[in-house]
Write a structure and sequence with these properties.
Blueprint (H helix, E strand, L loop, with lengths): L2 E12 L7 E3 L2 E3 L1 E11 L4 E6 L3 H4 L3 H16 L7 H8 L6 H19 L3 H5 L6 E3 L2 E3 L4 H13 L4 E5 L4 H15 L4 E5 L6 H12 L3 E5 L7 H10 L3 E4 L6 H10 L4 E4 L1 H4 L2 H12 L4 E3 L6 H12 L4 E4 L17 E3 L2 E3 L12 H7 L2
Parallel strand pairs: 7-8, 8-9, 9-10, 10-11, 11-12, 12-13, 13-14
Antiparallel strand pairs: 1-4, 2-3, 4-5, 6-16, 15-16
């Protein structure tokens, strides 16, 4: 089936009124300024993707995503057969950067292909996790009291893993972890994300104290460029290092795997789509390094797409997709379902989702 039309629709959705803006060591997020991608097939089927600009990480904006799709990708993709995955991948990878623009297009084309073949996307890709994926919740940088209350709320909702943002004052970071651990107990797994906010001294001071509180993993503890520092942490502290900002491409992943410091790889579907995510997961598996599905604060379309991407593979052991629970509304006719710490995937063809036209009209820019 050939691609006949591609649409890019910018939209804005706020957080829930009781949710503070997300904060991390180098920035924050107050609302979803995202782009809905629709790819049409010649028989009237439509595939969906969601692009979310994160200027501080990828250098993209809502406007630049629209321009990239219009000027780089639309014309070469029109008329392509959705089954010719390698040819499509070559077109998407032709232009460097534009991570979430091409990632969303990749997702939408795979959604269209799976709808054409009448199978759920995760089954087409591998079908390992039987329609559900473990989901961790993100706890942003706030006051200790607010972060503890948020953590308790997530645990009461049935979530079994918390990812806590740190990377500022190491003493306050340790105090935060101790307070959260005291509040949620030891039946909840906790890992932390410094977003490259520490230097070596701060990381080497804070992490052993966090390990004492049962923290099992740290995401991007140091600047990406501090290769020797990552190796030092990996060799001296009994904690896994989760790579995220340092593994934006397949080539980045291979470099980090060869280096030997990484303990987990964060696969973010919005920035690597389906094809490059597959390559990353398989490369990590060769090095016996598990992957998790990271979050870019997707709304419903992106959350379900990332869940399908993760549920396909045995080498994906967890996800951060419970971050979705912070949004006030969605474009979908049926919102993602969470149950006892898992995200439950729709069983319809492709992503198994549909867009509510009234919601799209309400939130589009």
């Amino acid at each position: 089936m050939k691609i006949t039309k591609i649409e890019a629709i910018p939209f804005v959705i706020p957080f829930r009124s009781d949710v503070e803006p997300s904060r991390w060591s180098s920035g924050g997020l107050e609302k979803a300024d995202h782009v809905l991608i629709r790819v049409y097939g010649e028989d009237g089927l439509v595939g969906y993707g969601e692009a979310m600009p994160r200027p501080g990480f990828y250098g993209e904006s809502q406007r630049s995503i629209m321009v990239a799709i219009e000027e780089f990708y639309r014309q070469p993709l029109l008329g392509m057969d959705v089954l010719e995955a390698e040819k499509i991948s070559q077109i998407l990878d032709r232009y460097p950067g534009n991570h979430t623009a091409r990632g969303a297009l990749d997702v939408a084309i795979h959604d269209l292909k799976a709808r054409f073949l009448r199978v759920p996307l995760y089954k087409l890709l591998g079908g390992w996790h039987d329609g559900r994926l473990p989901a961790a919740a993100n706890v942003s940088l706030k006051t200790i009291e607010t972060s503890v209350a948020e953590s308790v709320k997530f645990v009461e909702m049935g979530l079994k893993t918390l990812k806590v943002k740190v990377g500022g004052d190491p003493k306050k970071d340790v105090e935060l972890i101790r307070a959260i651990r005291k509040a949620v107990g030891y039946d909840t797994d906790i890992y932390v994300d410094a977003n490259q906010g520490w230097d070596r001294r701060n990381a080497l001071w804070a992490l052993p104290r966090m390990v004492d509180e049962g923290v099992f993993m740290v995401e991007e503890p140091l600047p990406v460029s501090d290769i020797e520092g990552k190796l030092l942490i990996a060799k001296t502290i009994p904690i896994l290092i989760l790579m995220d900002e340092g593994v934006m491409t397949v080539q980045d992943v291979v470099r980090e795997l060869k280096l030997g410091a990484v303990g987990r790889i964060s696969v973010k579907t919005p920035r690597t789509g389906i094809m490059n995510s597959q390559r990353i997961v398989k490369a990590a598996e060769m090095f016996h390094i598990p992957c998790i599905i990271g979050t870019q604060a997707e709304t419903g379309v992106g959350t379900i797409a990332s869940a399908h991407n993760g549920a396909a593979y045995k080498n994906v052991v967890n996800s951060e997709l419970a971050n979705y629970l912070k949004w006030s509304d969605d474009l979908l006719t049926e919102k993602p379902k969470f149950e006892k710490g898992f995200l439950i995937l729709p069983e319809g063809p492709g992503l198994g989702i549909e867009i509510d036209p009234e919601k799209l009209e309400k939130y589009k820019v």
